[in-house]
Amino acid sequence: MLDLPFLPFCVLLGGLGFVCVIFVSAWCQHWRGGFALDGSAQMFNWHPVLMVTGMVVLYGAAALVYRLPPAWSGPKLPWKVLHSTLAGAAFGLAVLGLAAVFRFHNDHGTPNMYSLHSWLGLATVLLFSCQWLAGFSAFLLPWAPAWLRALYKPVHIFFGSTILMLSVASCVSGINEKLFFSLKNGTTEYKRLPAEAVFANTLGLLILLFGVLVLGALARPSWKRPDADSPDSCQVPSPLRGPAG
């Protein structure tokens, strides 16, 4: 990665995340008919918007909270609260996104959980929930001993990054699947690369870039907390990284 200070990098990454949300919202509004809460195809459109916003953008933001220089010193509790709030918001949006797609399928007699995208997406959300609960128990609640936090920390870190990669893969595969279904009987097939396909494919690349940049920031040694090796430094409830992250 370029030798860019962390705070300007955060501004750049935040802008990219905002663009991802704008793109997925514009796609659903302009080409897919907008949004509704009545079980129609317009209700399905909430699914990609909520998943990209929650499982990619907010999840990535939660991962980087403890990379902020102000979080390196002083009380950790405010940063734990912020970290946990972002992760909890991401999970809440993911649950709403799943509810939207299941409601749409059930109202239209479409089978649930038949595609690779659906398997991958549900597995990601379930793993996310387990990771959040395990992190909350090990790193926030007072009864977790230091040896347990130290033992669990590498597992927490590994699965945190893994969940982010799975989230990106789920979103990209979902975009591709939706394009195949939507453009199959349209005026211009997907293979002809109509404007919608170009726009949605670009969205997929932006999501992938966002995920890669977050993982790169997490791996950069100079952006880690100075006390990264301390077991107490990873007392965090989030599913990604502790303060050591």
Automatic annotation (TrEMBL):
Residues in Cytochrome b561 domain copies: 12-219
EC numbers: 7.2.1.3
Localization of this protein: Late endosome membrane; Lysosome membrane
Broadest EC class assigned to this enzyme: translocase
Main location, first listed in the record: membrane
Known catalytic reactions: Fe(3+)(out) + L-ascorbate(in) = monodehydro-L-ascorbate radical(in) + Fe(2+)(out) + H(+)
Keyword Chloroplast included in the entry's annotation: no
One Gene Ontology molecular-function label: transmembrane ascorbate ferrireductase activity
Electron transport recorded as keyword: yes
Keyword annotations of the record: Electron transport, Endosome, Glycoprotein, Heme, Iron, Lysosome, Membrane, Metal-binding, Oxidoreductase, Translocase, Transmembrane, Transmembrane helix, Transport
Membrane topology field: Multi-pass membrane protein
Gene3D superfamilies (UniProt xref): 1.20.120.1770
UniProt region (Disordered), positions on chain: 223-245
Role according to the record: Transmembrane reductase that uses ascorbate as an electron donor in the cytoplasm and transfers electrons across membranes to reduce iron cations Fe(3+) into Fe(2+) in the lumen of the late endosome and lysosome. Reduced iron can then be extruded from the late endosome and lysosome to the cytoplasm by divalent metal-specific transporters. It is therefore most probably involved in endosomal and lysosomal cellular iron homeostasis.
Subunit text: Homodimer.
Protein name stated in the entry: Lysosomal membrane ascorbate-dependent ferrireductase CYB561A3
